[in-house]
Design brief:
The structure holds two protein chains of two kinds. By secondary structure, chain A is an alpha+beta fold. Helices cover about 25% and strands about 35% of the residues of chain A. In chain A, the strands form four sheets. In chain A, strands 7-8-9-3-10-11 form a six-stranded mixed beta sheet, sandwiched between helices. In chain A, strands 2-1-4-5-6 form a five-stranded antiparallel beta sheet, covered by helices on one side. Chain A has a five-stranded mixed barrel with strand order 12-13-14-21-15. Classes of the chains: A alpha+beta, B mainly alpha. Chain B: Keywords: Cell inner membrane, Cell membrane, Membrane, Transmembrane, Transmembrane helix, Transport. Chain B: It comes from Actinomadura rudentiformis. Chain B: Its main location: membrane.
Amino acid sequence: MTDLRIEGLTMGYGPDTTVLHGIDLTVPSGSLAAVLGPSGCGKTSLIRVIAGFLRARAGTVTVGGRTLTGPGTHVPPERRRIGIVPQEGALFPHLSVAANVAFGVTDRATRRQRTEEMLDLVGLAGYGDRMPHELSGGQQQRVALARALAPEPALVLLDEPFNALDSALRAGVRADVRAALHAIGATALLVTHDQQEALSTADIVAVVRDGRIAQCGTPQDVYDHPADPWIAGFVGDAVLLPATVVNGTATTALGTVEIRTPTGATAETPRQGTVLLRPEQLRLSDPGESTPSGSVTDVRYFGHDAMVTVAVDGLDTPVNIRITDHVAPRPGDRIGVRATGQATLHA
Amino acid sequence: MSTLRAPWGLLGPACLAGAFALLPLGYLAVRSMERGPGFAWGVVATEGTGLLLARSLGLAVVVVAACLILGISLAWLTVRTALPGAAVWSVVATVPLAVPSYVAAFAWLSAMPELAGFTGSAIALTLVSYPYVYLPVAAALRGTDPAHEEVSRSLGVGPVRTFLRVTLPQLRPAAAGGALLVALYVLSDFGAVSLMRYDTFTRGIYTSYRASFDRTPAAALSIVLVVMTVLLVAMETRTRGRRGHSRTGTGTARPIVPAPLGRMVIPALAWCAAVVTAAVAFPLGTLGYWLTVGNSGTWDLAGLVNIAGVTLTVAALGAALTTVLALPVGVVAARYRGRVADLLEHAAYAGHALPGITVALAMVFFAVRYAYPLYQELPLLVCAYAVLFLPVAVAATRAAVLQAPPVLEDVARSLGRSPLRVLREVTVPLAAPGVAAGAALTFVVCMKELPATLLLRPTGMDTLATRLWTETGVGSYADAAPYAAVLILLAAVPSYLLGRRT
């Protein structure tokens, strides 16, 4: 398997519309990258250009050092060795499961064996004679993955493959797909608008906004160090607080926190800024004279945790606090709130 | 939908098919201008032409008006009211679509010979073509939101005025589209008017062609007829386009609560029964009568079997050629947007605007001049069928391909298949049932075709349609009946199979 390099990729549907503005993205060999963005951000166009179904206006796409899209180069889809797993699987309805998986295997001698290996890999050994409509949605999706992997592609593209599955099934299929991809060391690109899916499945997350890569890093990087408040809010719940920063420490209405990104924050002279915290970084306590406090306005219970909204004295907007305690406060209660851990500074 | 260009292996055959479909039209134009536009104008600009024009248009106006009344009333009764047996009525009301105009004319003429002329033509044509109004109007009635009518009633407007002010305006696009189809049918019809001996444009062209050795007048008259039908097709296309727009965003309408008919139930049932009797029961009854009047002694059983076999053969050849030509055009039209694809689709639909008689004439001219060995030989007739019925097969192919998700083709490409192999291994197998349905439909319309078959058939060859026409023309109704019966039976088999699929 091989690495994917995208440089300066620009694409538009007409002379006046540009959908992708100079995308740069590198996915190392054997890793699973997620392209995360809201609908209409250009992420589907991006994978259609990589797969060769759309032509780029400028920029290059190379897989394992082989240029697929570049100035004067457009390798047709069938010669790219890029497998795709579309939404809802898109199995060929007129072919059996085995024939679907074998579709891309050109070597007749190994076709049968390869098909069985792939079905085994996705946990569907013995399903070869079934027709696609006899499978559940999750099974269809796993056959679609087996079909994409069977010809040993250089790269696998997954276009929101878990969208059509109901939420109970989604986590399981997601884990199976991730395990299958890792088992054979495939380089893969997963397109999704679901931040939970991107963070939990991928090794690398690229956040796309308006046809540009807004941030690219490990899931933890993107969650803990979002490049700007929009990304912070897109990849998770965010608490944004005005702060005075001096010497790497921010003083906020909820107490002092350390600044995680040291650049520009270690100056001795105080400066104003906005710090980002996650709701799970805030702690509730009994109201006291010395701790910041406020009144509870709302409590939303999720089972594994709960989100408490508190109007803190001296803050214009209420803050969200994620608690895992079994005893939740009730709306109207007076309560103390304190920030812990490290925060990200935005100017 | 791929934005890549269609591969040449697909575009080439599609362009050939498009050029093939346009050939007769082009040649007709060239041929009629051969002796100068002055001569052609001299032929056309006569009192006789004016009379033909007036007769054709007059017949079209009367038939369209009658079809609107029958079609809209039946559609409203079957869709919107508590008419007893509404489901059955709605099926029976569409049966006349399967009756060729010359069979209807045979039935009325043999029962009441005094109807020959305008009245008989108008009755026969109305009773076979009102489903063109009924079907789209019924669909529109099913699609419109009954809430509009409820709002109107709640605002104090009575049921009749609600129908006129709220319901009818919403039906206008559907009814207009249907009316244009009926007008097209009437202008192109040859079978009914020729049996009823009513001189319209098509019959005029036929007579002129038969009567004179100089074929330029027939060509010039054909051009006038084609201009009229092209105008109608253009109008029909425009209403269809607008209808599409007004339908978007209607969302899911609530199920319709049928309006109680009350004391009107008896007149409503009587009206439906009268229409269905005249359009379905009467032709079948007449046919049965003439079948019993004749006897096995007068029946030429061997001849009948022979002619049925010939009919099936030419129809099968016509359907095969048409389907093969339609396949690349249908795929390009469904999968590749762009100027070339649009142009191709329009070219393939040329047959829609060409009356059978004009296509046949163009083929005759072309063969006599450039391919004399083909003149009055089977291949020419099969080619005429392909030009005439390419629209039927292209529409079926296009719809079938559109139903196959394009993402499957993308997946096949990504698995290493070239575009042409994707077509063969994925698109065609998925679209096969729809393409086969189109082929069956083409087979049926080829079997019923009359004017082109009359002009282009090899000497001495008869199909069921031509034999029925000849026998009826000389008034030997009992001899004509078996051919009509066999034709209806043979056409009913594929029609029944098609109906069961949908």
